[in-house]
Amino acid sequence: MVVRRATESDIPQVIGFTRDTFTWGDYVPRVINKWVKDGTAYVALINEEVIGVVNLVLLPTGVAWLEGIRVKPTYRRRGVGTALTNYVLNLARVKGARYAMLMIAEWNNASHGLALKLGFKPILNVHGGVVKESPVHHETDRERMRKLIEEALDKTGGYFCSAVDHWVCTRADVNYVLSVTRDVYIGEKGLGFDRGFSVGQPTTPIRMEMLTTEYGDFEEYFGRFIVYELALY
């Protein structure tokens, strides 16, 4: 088995074995073109047959974000997922990442088992889905925003997530959150950010896809997800 960076010629094979990963399909076929263009996707191959894929995003926070780990059905339970993950973890170390993080749906026992086997620890539970708009106070004062962000990070243990463009969570400090956030929303039961993240229940003035630390008023609920972390050093 060989693991290497994915190329454009790998895309049809990746789409072929990921389109029906779950009962609802899979998001990987929609994003694999971008991942390959960005140079962040890696594939496992046997005799030029693509049998696995993973995406690795190196964040400015020193976190390596792993997503879209998929193995072709006929090659599952043969160590492909472990080999792929170890490959990108080693690459992340070489690139200077201090932590690796990933997110797994609560019901996906096989993926939880892989993460735990590799040494990942669960650090945050989030709910994902499309949420309805809710009454909020839009905070614009920068110093007040800083205080609210400090309180939010205290509640999450120092982690911040985003559902804009793609789902991602990271270790974060106040300055990082301020650098990626323009709007902070105060709601009755949560604190919302324009990055599609709420600490507490969904809090947003517009309908949008969000990750939240508490269940709330979802228009379309995707489920509960566990965020895992692994120290790379």
Descriptive account of the structure:
The protein has two domains: 2-97, Aminopeptidase (3-Layer(aba) Sandwich), CATH 3.40.630; 126-228. The radius of gyration is 18 Å and the shape is globular. The model has no long low-confidence stretch (mean pLDDT 95). It has helices spanning 11-18, 28-38, 80-94, 109-117, 142-156, 174-180; strands at residues 2-5, 41-46, 49-58, 63-71, 99-105, 121-131, 137-139, 159-162, 168-171, 184-186, 190-193, 197-200, 208-212, 218-231. The longest helix has 15 residues, at 80-94. The strands form two sheets. The protein has a twelve-stranded mixed sheet with strand order 1-2-3-4-5-14-6-13-12-11-10-7, sandwiched between helices. The protein has a two-stranded antiparallel sheet with strand order 8-9. Helix 1 runs antiparallel to helix 2 (28-38). Helix content is 28%, strand content 38%. By secondary structure, it is an alpha+beta fold. A hairpin with a 2-residue loop joins strand 2 and strand 3 (49-58). It contains six helices and 14 strands.
